[in-house]
Amino acid sequence: xxxxxxxGGGLVQAxxxxxxxxxxxxxxxxxxxxxxFRQAPGKEREFVTFINWSGDSTYYVDSVKGRFTISRDNAxxxxxxQMNSPKPEDTAVYYCAARSPRPGPPTAxxxxxxxxxxxxxxxxxxxx
Length: 128
What we know:
This protein is mainly β. The protein is built from no helices and 11 strands. Strands 2, 4, 5, 6, 9, 10 and 11 form a 7-stranded mixed beta sheet that branches. Strands 1-3-8-7 form a 4-stranded antiparallel beta sheet, with no helix packed on it. A hairpin with a 4-residue loop joins strand 7 (68-73) and strand 8 (78-84). It is globular. The termini are far apart.
């Protein structure tokens, strides 16, 4: 059974930095695409960033471009989210997810329903 466990969340000041990790267990996810989503209080869960299996293709929601960086270490079965210059509006529970590569719409990786596995989430709070 695959499990995803996020760590690294916490309280950070605006303009600081934070790195989230998402470790997978149960099987190798080196061939899986990975994503980070977030959910702020009273809002729906939203896409943040995506990385393909090899790490050479990434996408970001406009609001985090230039500030957040997704990366992966397949040897460690882990994906990371480096958050630089976070803003109070980045405050949310952050979830990592994994999906097996499959044919379909080219931007399916933006959709929650396309992911096979989810972590339990980690709270990130950005103070002003």
